[in-house]
């Protein structure tokens, strides 16, 4: 990933570096078992999008994921990535071109963070200088300071940090496809929300094709451009956008899986960056507190936000704190209510409730402060979202050959099999 | 006693060195053989069970009996000594290597395969390094044990301090007999301590900080 790519994706036109994936009639039958773990699954995964596989445990979603990089060899069927049939190529070479992230990162405990990340580039024969530069670049991307973390060992990191390094390692050789197997299953809810926000921020920079397995429907709604809901034997129940699945569940199974709170799911569908944020008075450590205070009084705002040299929020200060202080201090407040701009309104509300604040600070790429979201904004956005729902769109192809007798990919209209249009 | 050591200091030092060298070389050989066997069997439950069984039963074989049996085909000298010492040294290492390799979290192996490491590369770069501290513990146990075994195999006229013990025991009551036995026994103990310290140091140097306990 080069600088040019970042800047071009920062502009409204995004460069998709991901590849499309096509599963064609893929079946996996384990020896000695009558029923297939995955039965005749045909699934189109569009380039540059995040596709979430959800379903009850044992439904074959993980098996399907692992067949994409052929950690599990399909019994029959084809896997086509970017138009290239990869079903028979060398599995190890294929996997070097596909990022893979598992729960808790799956880091090698005997290697430093840097050597973990450098593993794939090394296998691909990159030279040392290029690898080192890449390691630092990736650590920056996942919001870890290279100076601090490069030489640490996995056991010296928190769960969330290990997961970040896992993502960095998967992205090391800039693969077009990223596979994630329940990546955020092993971390606490607050860290999970942060990691999800970060993944979305990273995705807006790198535009990979991401396939992610989860058992958490809320996570699927938050992260997914498309959601595939599987029943036993990887039978596809519905494959569509989160909005459409929530609005029109294709079957009773899907309805039950979504759960009863579908009304409130609107909170999960709207992102922080889709609502209007409030500007804030910002300052940096070392400034005179009285100057900031007069600025604050002039604007009628209640708090000022202290940013570090890279524009990341360090702490907030209200008028009383400002009047007591002389110089703005640069200490970091760990209880600061912060949400990523790609977080859902649900996350934002959660964050505010946890911090007992009526606002939260919003950060964008690489944790740079972008504005403030308030409770009122959230409420207004829910009301607005409930009144407008678009239904003009085309879903990618996904069906099981068992459900329909003839499967012709070319002539099949772009609708999901489980969903009568 | 002092006279005994003084008169034969060169001989004692030479025998000690030979003893030490026999044990170290056999240990290296045993480590290679044991790790190779462990790699071949650890994924298969039945084979791993057999290997563990052989390791347990093998340790009950009296080393003196084994050396006696080996003199028949190989004659007196270094060959039967090396075979016996290596055999006993390999057993605890084999056992620890299998345990070490089996105790690696499956997710670590899965992620190694998932990022495109071949079976062999996974073994060499991930599995063996992670199992290494456990394997090395086996090597240390072996080192202690075969120091004694190496003394016994001197019966087959192999090199080492065992010569002092056997010659002393055969003429017990005679002049310098007891001194000879004591020099042999104490020498073995001192060598064992030295080797253990060296192995401890090797462990420190070869275990990455990330998996040190």
TrEMBL record, chain A:
Record-linked Pfam families: ABC_tran
Name by which UniProt lists this protein: Osmoprotectant transport system ATP-binding protein
Ranges where the CBS domain occurs: 332-388
GO terms, molecular function: ATP binding
Residue stretches making up the ABC transporter domain: 21-258
Domain of life according to the entry: Bacteria
SMART domains xrefs: AAA
UniProtKB/TrEMBL annotation, chain B:
Membrane-spanning residues: 20-42, 54-76, 82-101, 149-169, 181-203
Subcellular location: Cell membrane; Membrane
SUPFAM superfamilies attached to this UniProt entry: MetI-like
Keywords: Membrane, Transmembrane, Transmembrane helix, Transport
Keyword presence, Nuclease: no
Record has Transmembrane as a keyword: yes
Main location: membrane
InterPro entries: ABC_transp_perm/SBD, MetI-like, MetI-like_sf
Domain ABC transmembrane type-1: 16-199
UniProt topology in membrane: Multi-pass membrane protein
Sequence similarity: Belongs to the binding-protein-dependent transport system permease family.
PANTHER family, per database record: GLYCINE BETAINE/L-PROLINE TRANSPORT SYSTEM PERMEASE PROTEIN PROW, OSMOPROTECTANT IMPORT PERMEASE PROTEIN OSMW
This protein's name: Osmoprotectant transport system permease protein
């Amino acid at each position: 990933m080069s600088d040019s790519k970042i800047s071009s994706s920062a502009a409204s036109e995004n460069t998709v570096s991901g590849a499309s994936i096509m599963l064609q009639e893929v079946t996996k039958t384990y020896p000695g078992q009558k029923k297939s773990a995955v039965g005749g699954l045909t699934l189109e995964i569009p380039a540059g999008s995040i596709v979430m596989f959800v379903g009850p445990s044992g439904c074959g979603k993980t098996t399907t994921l692992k067949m994409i990089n052929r950690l599990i060899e399909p019994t029959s069927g084809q896997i086509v990535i970017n138009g290239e049939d990869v079903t028979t190529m060398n599995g190890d070479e294929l996997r070097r071109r596909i990022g893979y992230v598992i729960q808790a990162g799956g880091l090698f405990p005997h290697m430093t963070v840097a050597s973990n990340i450098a593993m794939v580039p090394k296998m691909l024969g990159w030279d040392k200088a290029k690898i080192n530069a890449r390691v630092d670049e990736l650590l920056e991307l996942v919001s870890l300071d290279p100076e601090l973390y490069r030489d640490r060992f996995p056991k010296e990191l928190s769960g969330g940090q290990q997961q970040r390094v896992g993502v960095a390692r998967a992205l090391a050789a800039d693969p077009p496809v990223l596979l994630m197997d329940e990546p955020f299953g092993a971390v606490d809810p607050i860290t999970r929300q942060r990691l999800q926000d970060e993944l979305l921020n990273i995705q807006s920079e790198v535009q990979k094709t991401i396939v992610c397995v989860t058992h958490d429907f809320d996570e699927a709604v938050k992260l997914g451009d498309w959601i595939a809901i599987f029943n036993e034997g990887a039978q596809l129940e519905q494959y569509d956008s989160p909005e459409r699945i929530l609005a029109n569940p294709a079957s009773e199974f899907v309805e039950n899986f979504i759960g009863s709170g579908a009304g409130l799911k609107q909170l999960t569908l709207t992102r922080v960056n889709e609502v209007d944020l409030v500007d804030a008075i910002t300052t940096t450590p070392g400034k005179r507190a009285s100057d900031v205070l007069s600025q604050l009084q002039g604007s009628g705002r209640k708090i000022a936000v202290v940013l570090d040299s890279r524009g990341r929020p360090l702490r907030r200060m209200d008028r009383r704190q400002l009047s007591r202080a002389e110089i703005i201090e640069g200490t970091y407040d760990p209880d600061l209510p912060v949400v990523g701009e790609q977080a859902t309104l649900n996350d934002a509300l959660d964050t505010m409730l946890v911090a007992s604040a009526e606002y939260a600070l919003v950060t964008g790429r690489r944790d740079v402060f972008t504005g403030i979201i308030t409770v009122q904004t959230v409420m207004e956005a829910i009301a607005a979202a409930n009144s407008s729902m678009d239904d003009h769109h085309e879903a990618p192809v996904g069906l099981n050959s068992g459900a329909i007798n003839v499967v012709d990919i070319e002539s099949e209209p772009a609708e999901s099999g489980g969903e009568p249009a | 006693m002092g006279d005994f050591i003084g008169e034969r200091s060169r001989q004692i030092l030479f025998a000690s060195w030979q003893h030490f060298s026999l044990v170290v070389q056999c240990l290296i050989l045993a480590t290679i053989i044991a790790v190779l066997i462990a790699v071949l069997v650890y994924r298969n439950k039945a084979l791993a069970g057999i290997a563990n069984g052989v390791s347990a039963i093998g340790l009950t074989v009296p080393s003196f009996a084994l050396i006696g049996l080996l003199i028949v085909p190989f004659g007196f000298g270094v060959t039967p000594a090396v075979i016996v010492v290596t055999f006993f040294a390999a057993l605890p290492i084999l056992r620890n290597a299998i345990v070490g390799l089996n105790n690696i979290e499956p997710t670590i192996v899965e992620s190694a395969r998932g990022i495109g490491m071949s079976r062999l590369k996974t073994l060499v770069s991930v599995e063996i390094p992670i199992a290494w501290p456990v394997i090395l513990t086996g090597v240390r146990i072996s080192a202690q044990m075969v120091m004694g075994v190496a003394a016994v195999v001197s019966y087959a006229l192999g090199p080492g301090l065992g010569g002092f013990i056997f010659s002393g025991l055969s003429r017990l009551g005679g002049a310098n007999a007891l001194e000879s036995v004591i020099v042999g026994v104490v020498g073995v103990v001192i060598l064992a301590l030295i080797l253990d310290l060296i192995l401890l140091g090797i462990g420190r140097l070869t275990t990455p900080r990330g998996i040190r306990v």
